[in-house]
Every structure is written in structure tokens, then in C-alpha cells.
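If you are new to this repository, start here. Below is one unmodified record pulled from the training split, so you can see the exact layout before writing a loader.
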Amino acid sequence: MSRDVIAVYPGTFDPITLGHEDIVRRAAALFDRVIIAVAMAHHKKTLFTLDERLDLARDCAARCGNVEVAPFDGLVKDFVLQRGGKVMVRGVRGVTDFDYEFQLAGMNRNLAPNVETVFLAPAAALQSVSSTLIREISQLGGDVTPYVAPLVLERLQRRMTELHAGGYSRR
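And here is the target side for that same chain:
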């Protein structure tokens, strides 16, 4: 019997990193379809707008044939169920991530018992990479080239130039 297993990889992706991309590739090899679900993130002040984050995620998805990108708002379990997802993919870099993600997985299982959470670890070289660190290093003038795709690097450099010139305002 053939099953079309859809996995959803949710996050803010502000910005998407090579660690995220590694998780996307791993998930794409395991599941029939993967949806990168980009959170609108009203609760966070993001560096990039939703449209910019979607664009950067689409650049990542283009490198895998079975990956698509979509925005979501509200509970991720509602998005997963609306899209016919059976699996929620979460990246785990270490013990701190695991503790938080394990709690989240338990709550999601209560809310959507038919959706499984799968934890994937990025490659060892990418385990210290987070969007927060990328933003901070970039804002302080550090080199994030080894941790983000070329398009993300270009957009980060442009945004930092705008911020330092005082010309950027959130749309």
C-alpha cells in the first residue's frame, strides 16, 4: 500500500540557516513531501518580514524536489492537520533544545494525537548554529558566511547596511 507521508517543518526561520537546510534535506529523504511552515510570528520582532522569510525558505526548498514552503499563523497543529500532515519535524541541536522540544512534542501530541513528532539533529558542524546567533553575529559585523546560504548572506548584509544607515523600517 502506497502512502503519501507529509511532514511539516515549522519555524520562524529568521533567517533560515544551513542547519535548517540540513534538517530539510534529511526530512526530504525520509518523507514523501515536506512543507517548510514559516510562522507569521506576531509574538516576535523579526529581522526579516514574513515575505522575505518565505522567499529565503523557497530558495532552500528549490534544492529539494519534494519540499514546498507555506506561511502559517496560529497553532501549528491546525496547519499540519489542514495540510494532511502526519509528521512534525523538529531540529534538535542539544540538550537544551531537546528539553524544550520534548515538552512541545508532548503538548502537540495532546492537541493532535495522530501527528507524530520526529526529532532530527543537524550535521555536527552545524549544531551550534541558530538564527538568533546568526542575527547577533551579523549585527555586530561578524562573518556568518559558513552558516547561511549565499542568498541569505546577501539579504543579511543588505539588512545590516540598512540598519546601520538608519534606513530600514519594518513593513
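Two things worth knowing about this chain: The longest strand covers residues 33-39. The two ends are 48 Å apart (CA to CA).
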